[in-house]
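Ligand: NAI. Inputs:
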Amino acid sequence: MPSITLTRDAGVAVLSLDVPGAPVNTLSLALAEELRVIFDEIERDSAIVGAVLISGKSDNFIAGADIEQFLEFKTAEDAEQASYTGQKMLSRLERLRVPVVAAIHGACLGGGLETALACAWRIATEYPKTVLGLPEVQLGLIPGTGGTQRLPRLIGLPNALDMILRGRNVRPKKALKMGLVDDVVHPAILRDIAMQRAKELAAGTRKRSQGRTERGAEGLLLERNRFGRGLVLKKARQSVMQQTHGLYPAPLAALDVIRVGYEQGEDAGYKEESRRFGELAMTEVSRQLIFLFFATNSLKKDPGVSSPVPAPRPVEKLGVLGAGFMGAGITSVAVQQGTLVRLKDTDAARIGKGLAAVRDVVKERYTKRQITRQQLDDMMALTGGTTEYTGFGNVDLVIEAVFEDIDLKHRVLREVEPLLPEDAIYASNTSTIPITRIAEAATRPEQVLGMHFFSPVHKMPLLEIIVTRRTTKEATVTAVAYGKQLGKTVIVVNDGPGFYTTRTLSAYMNEAGRLLDEGAAIETIDKALVDFGFPVGPITLLDEVGIDVGGKVGLVLADALGVRMTPSEAMRRVVTAGRLGRKGRSGFYRYDESGKKGDVDNSIYQIIGATARAKAGQQVEIPAEEMVRRCVLAMVNEAARCLQEGILRSVRDGDVGAVFGIGFPPFRGGPFRYVDTIGVAAIVRQLQELNTRHPPRFEAAELLVEMARSGKTFYPTEGRPVT
Ligand code: NAI
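Predicted complex:
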């Protein structure tokens, strides 16, 4: 079945794109071939004076290239060739005898935007799903069909760099201002306006779009001369290096390709674009990022239970216990989805503070003009506070986010359960306490589960749902569906101390504490792990999370999992000294009044006993590589244990959970992908070697030992990654 239908309407050829059987349009080699035939026909038929490219889907223009095809590239030359074929097709579109107008409704991304860029005129609809962008860097690639050349020329270098290097999407109004589109219209008149523009362009009453007419003279001046451009590109490179520490090759390659286009002309630019696209398509970084893309997509379709799958129940009204940091965060995302929320705390002042925090988050969207004033007011009108559980009689779901204290958690559960509808689900946002223990206080334990959000809730993409042996499938699918409605990537794990994310993160942080015990410098540890790819180092993270919180978690996990989780001496001392981290403005680092991080607070070395050890000459130099190996392998080994114990349902969940919940470097794919990359046998050898020096913390998980023995890998080594 063809993807494009060509109809003629008063001299205008309307190319309607609708890839059969697919939810969104994607570009493929087969589609390029179809276009070639259609272009031939347009060239032949002199009755055609203009053309309109429009989507046959209800709310999607072209979502990008068919990423599955990328996985079939065996060599850099294959990928380079595919890019070259795409470029040729779009050059032909650009030079067609008749002007082509892109009528954009819905996502216009990657190859989709590159196609639109080759058209003579671009019209976008004012519609929530209409976005334009070049997200290739997020897959470790660069735009491969002319985007690196056409975009800067159309909208100017600074805006183009912003879109290409960050993979950032642009909404229609902004696109119009930037010169990326030429008209923004109501969806109902998109086709008519597109037809009209095609005719005007054909008649010469309108000129081909020049895009960047609105850019100031200053910007133009800067870009027109070699020196000015060099300055812009240099600054962009510095900013990329600062953000990525040079660990992501794609944005750097994009900068090179753009420079070649400016310095040596478009043809050289296109050539370099295909060459670098081909090179990048073969990198491990790109493979891992593409895996994460597929894994996240497959989670979107995963109901969270095995079949038979019951239907999820709608969650229209939510009760939140605790208006603190997390309770307010959860409320702020819930009201944005139209959920009615009752927020319960112990006194009016705390509720007031919680509601103010909710408003801050929602208001930020208003300030960024993503919502109207009316929408802001409507969202805030959905929340109400109580000190007495009023309004809990008809909630569908309760999320508890009171202090991390089992007695308190039992008390609030006992208080609220009798007031709830019989079928209401009760979720705890605890980060460590096993849900089975919390459910001991319930008369309906089968309706109890964990919904572990991460802070800040409105920014962190992951939701870890924890089910006990007794949790019903209906409760699970309802919590999963609601989590997705809140925009989260949801993994479902089985119950256990620290579940998956807290447990693996603790193993890693604990090892950082051991490094402190041995005299390593705080900033050296942090730097080593940031260089590996974590967003912040483990000691900085501890300050962020709260040293008191970290201390409590450490004790619970040591109690449950044994000696390998025993908190470090350094950690015990800092907790005893009452340092809280950033929130108390006293941690491993210094913080100013506004909470901004400064240098290491050297007085902490006294507290952790390092000063005394240094004086006694007991300090050792630990190479950065060893620091990384110890912290990362502690995490990876614990992840393997979670898999072996059935806490995790799949390696996919473990990888996605670690990347989106606890900051495992995305370009390494997650702990299991990382093991596969290094090799299971090599990882086991490294663990064994570490264990001879630090027994028993590095005793390799049985699963890893067994896999090394039988030569197995976590993911299939051939073909498409199974997610
Ligand atoms: P918080 O201290 O900011 O808030 C706790 C709130 O619970 C306070 O407002 C307190 O007044 C309220 N509260 C105490 N007793 C109550 C009662 N009987 N009824 C209603 N409210 C009551 O604590 P935070 O950080 O929000 O943590 C809450 C839960 O979320 C804890 O279980 C924590 O482990 C978990 N969590 C925290 C994360 C974080 O980064 N802070 C991340 C993930 C989970």
